[in-house]
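Hi C.,

You asked whether I'd gotten around to modeling the 317-residue construct. I have! Everything is below, sequence then structure, no commentary in between.
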Amino acid sequence: MAGFILRRIVQTACVLLVMSFVIYGLIGLMPGDPLDAMLASVPNVTPDVIEHLKQIYGLDQPLLLRYWHWLLAALSGDLGYSRTHSQPVLVVLLPALLQSCKLMLASFCVSVVLSVTLGVLAARRPGGRLDAAISLFAFAGLSVPVFWLALVLILLFAVQLHWLPASGMSSLGGGGPGDQLRHLALPVATLALVTAGGFTRYVRAAMIETMRMDFIRTARAKGAGEARIVLRHALRNALIPVVTVMALSFGTLFSGALVTETMFAQYGMGKMIYDAILGNDYNLALAGLLFATLITLLSNLGADLAYARLDPRITLQ
């Protein structure tokens, strides 16, 4: 186990190195540079001043040399300076990462519990009324646009019922944990309902296939209870392919929840990366995309470890 984890950490470091070069190159090939937005608001700038600023920021150097200097600084813990926020990148990145962690972890846990429960119930009697109702819910979750669902939840729970705040991360003047949970309720519900639809379909299909296998008939022939058959024998085997899908989705949630974060005014990783790219904030965009890559790789490592936990026949040697 320790050797497997060590090899995966080395592989993760190699992938991050390659991705950092690719992302840095793509951002560096974008039209314009960080000085364009700065100089656009300053009239009558002479070419000598522009050239001097490029030398200060290193923009007159070749792309590979600039990447090498950035890599050496990043390895020492210096991710650069955010131009749009006028702060170090880590100072801007950490609050957005913390907000995304709260939002994504909560929505992911809710969607997993909901999808596993509904998928198992639907697979118990395929083609029945309960299966049809759950399938309708799953297809609705897959089909409904995120912004439309967010608007519906805002109109219902914030405008009509006045139960929850419509947007923001806390009340004016700050708030305690309870206030922050109330502000997270609607965005978490939006993301959970959207992602639970796809998860439910995977769990249902895997459970139906597993319930038809020989070892399930053998367990019934030995007199095992239905709850033990479903939860201990069928569900553990059915979750193996589902874990892969969930792990991949977990990584994309951290960088792909831009619509939800915008609708509910949640400043997370998705909104931060989007604003950084539009503002030519190279250092902040690069750091945000690399963190999203790292989270995706770690979620895949977690999925591999979960395989061995779910099925003792799987070894990580």
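If it helps when you're writing up: The chain has 13 helices and two strands.

Thanks,
B.
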